[in-house]
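Human: If only I could read backbone structure tokens as easily as an amino acid sequence. Take your time, and here it is.
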Amino acid sequence: MPGVFNLSVDEAVKEVRATRALGVLSIILFGLPEKKDEVATGAWAEDGIVQRAARAIKSEVRDVVVMGDVCLCEYMSHGHCGIVKAEPQSLGAAAAAPPATAEYEIVNDASLELLARTSVSLARSGVDVIAPSDMMDGRVGAIRKALDGAGFENTPILSYAAKFSSGFYGPFREAADSAPQFGDRRSYQMDPANVREAMREIELDIEEGVDMIMVKPALPYLDVIAAAHRRFDLPLAAYQVSGEYAMIEAAARNNWIDRERVMMESLISIRRAGASMILTYYAKEAAKLLA
């Protein structure tokens, strides 16, 4: 995406320092490991890329809130958000099909163990807010229990409580090399047509002890943000994802829109819908315009 880059740890520190100077109070970290495997080792390793970045940032920029995205897709060789169990293929035509079409199952409970382990590792590295984005059932409760057991009772959880199976994630998945190698994520991410399910997913996270909730993506789901704002008395975040950013940038490069005006209009619409926090690639530029 234009203007967005994968950063080394030292460059990330510089970026956070510059962002904080503009008045942006918090950042979120995503990691690209050197190697991927089937148990997401890079996500929970004490010397993982996000763990190293968090320690460096907190030592250099002390008054910034560091959030850590907790998901396994970027660290899994198959690109799914949990442990995958392959199912034997049936006889007949399916037996001649390539491996990518084989039946598979996301093993929910085993995945929770890795998510909890990752969360504790990030907290130990200085991450202030744990932000699970995996959409496994019961992840908030498992993470809360693990954090409390490790002495991080005061570390809050910001859950991607309503994360939809969306076509707007493409640019991020390409940059993070995290697209599923087979199948898709519709079995654990949410149906874009079902707002009632979104409300139920948020309720379940609240029951498990979440501190903040998030809707992802933002612009195609302003109605979900508004419904969550009316219904739940918790801090509400919205994620303006890579596809939303890319559309604005592409249209602006073709001189079809006024880039700054549309950027701010999109952010205002998310805020107007009820989001109290916005996760966006435009944070620095918006901060400059609002100063």
Observations:
- The radius of gyration is 19 Å.
- The mean pLDDT is 89.
- Residues 9-290 form a domain with the TIM Barrel fold (CATH 3.20.20.70).
- The chain is about 40% helix and 15% strand.
